Amino acid sequence: MTGPLRERDDAHALLAAEIERARAGTGRLVLLRGAGGTGRTSALETAARHAEDRGLRVLRVRCSPEDTSVPFSMVLHLLGPVPEFADMTPGGDDRGSAARLWRLLRSYADQGPVVVAVDDVHLADDSSRRWLAEAARHADRLPLLLVATERSQYDIDPRPPGLTQALPPSLVRTHTLAPLSDAAAAELVRDAFPDAPAPWTREVVLAGAGSPLLLHALLDDLGGTPHPDGLAPVPVTCAALYPGSYPAAVSWWLNGAGPATADVARSLAALEQAGPAGPEPAQDRPAGPPPPPGALRHALAHPWTPPSEPVHRHPHDTPAVRTRRPGDIAPGCRDVWGPDPAEGRPDGWGADPDDGRPDAWGAGPADGAGDPRTSPSWAYGAAFPAAAGVGSGPEHAEQGPYPHPTEPGDGAGAPHAWSPTPAAHARYGDRPRSAPGAAAYGRTDPPAHAPHRTTLWRTPSPPRAPGPAGDPVDVLAEAAGADPVRVEGWLAAMTRLGLLRPDAGGRPRYAHPLLRDAVLTGWPRPRREAVHRAAAEAMLRRGDRVEAVARHLLRTPAVGLSWALRVLRDAVTVAVHDARPADAVGYLRRALDEPLPDGLRQRLLTELGSLEYASADTPAAIARLAEAQHLPAEPRNQVRTAVALGTALAGRGEIRTAMEVLRRTEGRLSGHPGLARTVQTATALLSDEDLATRQEVYRWLCETGRHSPELVGTAGQALLVRYAATAALISAEEAMARVRGLLAQPTDPLAEPFLLGTAAAVAQWADELDEAERLVERGLAGQHPALLHPMQHALLNTRADIAAARGRHTRLLALAADPGPGPHPTNRDAHALTALVHTGRTDEALRYADRFDLREAPENWELNRYLYARGVLRAATGDPAGALHDFLECGRRQAAREVISPVVTPWRTAVAECRLALGGGPEALALATEELRLARVWNTPRTVGRALRVLGTATGGRRGLELAEEAVRTLRDAPADTDTELIPALLAQGRQLLDAGERGRARARLREAAELAERQGALRWFTLADQALREGGARSPVASRTGAGALTGSERRIAELAADGRTNTEIAELLHLARRTVETHLTSTYRKLRIRRRTELPGALERGGRRERAREPDPDSRC
User: Fold this and answer.
1) What's the burial of 436, exposed, middle or buried (CB within 10 Å: 0-12/13-18/19+)?
2) What domain range includes position 1048?
3) pLDDT in tens, 660-684
């Protein structure tokens, strides 16, 4: 070890005092003890140099393991050449030899004070150790100082007794060298690198682990090769170090600890690599906001849209779930692979949340269960029906804990009912034997609280209370093959020394990843894999969480036993429901390393490809799904794979290839007409991504549906209803009647998602928003989270459309916060852009729109939606010519797709408004008239009211006023929430009334528009209403009822004091008010500011202040 010593002044003072004592004629034994690398040798060398400087004779010797078998080897090396012992043979250990050697040492002492410096005395041969101990008994009468260093470190294999065990304390001075403190280590780092920043210094200190040896070696490596940019980041692998002093020092430390200790140290490092990164269990959510529930990139890579309203039904309450026994499905996983139930299907889909019956998770409302990521408390019993003939048959057919949806459950005669009593189950012959009292299998503990029953499968529940901290000692002991008691002691000792540090969860971990990597350097891969497998088996017996077990299996080769495959697949279930597709992909890839039959391999490849697509790895996903398609499988599984592959290809823009895949699959299903119809429906849905393909597919679909509707099935007929609605061929009433009739018919479970998604879209267009929302939730609940399906994307789009129809701008703005998965605009982007405009955030909207280059965008319907939204933005920012271009392009593209009805993108009314702004009255009138004609075909208040509004503006005069009045009346009397159209209708009518001189009626309409706009948070419309009122001469244009501007003087004073951190009592005393008055004012303030917590007050007041300053109202306009 090189470099200066720190925090060793007490040792130096002790040795200096003893040297002076020896000079005075009184000797002693001084024993310097310490762990490996704490600087024992350096302290001894410093003392020896000091003794020489003081005129003492110094005899030095350094013991080594090679000399332990040679009697008196240490003494002979110490005393130098001794002629009378030149011919002494090994093994001649006798008292006479010891006496002669002692007399020789005394002769040295007679000539003057002597210091005997013995380094690493624990490595000395037994004869020499006894001789040195005997010399210590007589040193107090001689000018003889004996100084020895001894390694005193807790090891797995107990060490022999120390040198001083048999000596009286008066003859020995023992000093133990403590590890370096962080402060002393930081000083050493700053001495070597004066310009090092504090975080970098902290990293080096942690990697030094309190050991002077390791710290100096690391500093040598870090300074060995200068970095061109100054200080390089502290590496986490030893491969980045040069010349390699640090890993060599760690290797020396391990060698000195012995093979047993080295194995435990390396086993701990290996297990740590597979451990969770934080204090919470692996499947628990980390602290902080959860990832968006739509993080899984299903279908065409569009994330989650917040629901418009909560729907009170369990997310997995579907016929397939309710007709399966709890033992037949994995917790949190809907059975999509198993055979569809032929009977027992309930008439209704929605379960009553208050009926007290157990739901699909097996827990009633009183159970507090329902987390889709965990099994209920009974799962490990009821889910394991007793199996006959366990151990017979092939491995893959063996039934065990967590039966996966892809495997049939055994116990054919078991009742299809939930039972809270655990059923008996047999132990598998090939599984590790369970420890007494342990859970039967890797557990997923129930959540600390139950989420609401309406929680979607994508919404993770809040973190559970942390379980027992740390890697269990018995797991580490079993993995390393060591005594658990000694392992526990070693962990405590290493933590005290600083090589291990407890993390936030209390687990002992290596102080730095670089140290962990150094410990593992040179350890053979088979040994690491053996440790991980042993740990997995031990954790399985303990009943640890499935992901904790699976993380170790990720680092092992194929086990070849069914328990390993089950662990990995159950870990996939947990990761999928926790919205962690990347983790699920890792588990599935490892599961495919196990020996599998073709059928099971095909299903797992389909799941893997779907999850890889969700992780934005489209090429890998397509390769996996293509491989799955070429494996033999049941027809239903072939359909699932083909639909997933077609969806992935369409999402990549390879629509022709997707169509070919689906047509090939359809051709192989000649004996299964129902499945063939499902493939046809998927083909029609995916054809929306390409104009030419869509025309071809819908031409065939319309022709077949006209002559033989039974050949296209209920889902195909629903697509025809959607087509007729967009082509302005039927009314909303007729469309809903047809859709409801189709929903009442029996439907193949594989075709049901297409029916639900299409019906939800039609219902949303028909302004049946509540029904549309129920259909969306029902469809999403039926989606398997690990299977790629095009209706996942369609349903999420419809959910966003519902939120837009209701004017839920806040929820739509959440979409703008996520940049999205690709470079092309989507329906989500269109809604986000429109919401930014309506909320007055036009600058942000312009930046949002600049992200996309439409020249490379695919020719799909989502581009048309985005063009319309960009036109809205351009019109709002004073660019009617640019807006006109976008609206016309949108209309051209929609017409090419035979989307004529204004129910999707009312581009004609938008073009008419732009024409009016540019002075083109006749063209605007013609377009508005045509829009009204088409709107009356669909005949919903929203479309008709919108068309009447624009037609009234284009017509003008008394007839225009009549049309404007009719528009307002139509929208105001609508049964659905049409405020998003009523507000601009009121604004248009108010302006027309102002032009006609009817200022009283105009102000009433404009104030109503302002109130509705404020309620919806539509700042742009609110500002337009305010401007119109000012133009109409109103002295008090708009009094805001919300926001900081709506606060009274008393409310503002109290709010500001509360924002400064004062309590209600302090505010009451300061303002001489009753405490109840303060509370009342704060309640009113929270309502006006639209906040819920006291901590939100400062930000809300600051935002309100900025808004008021930006407006800068004219004082003369106030009454």
Assistant:
1) exposed
2) 1044-1110
3) 999 999 999 989 999 999 999 999 9
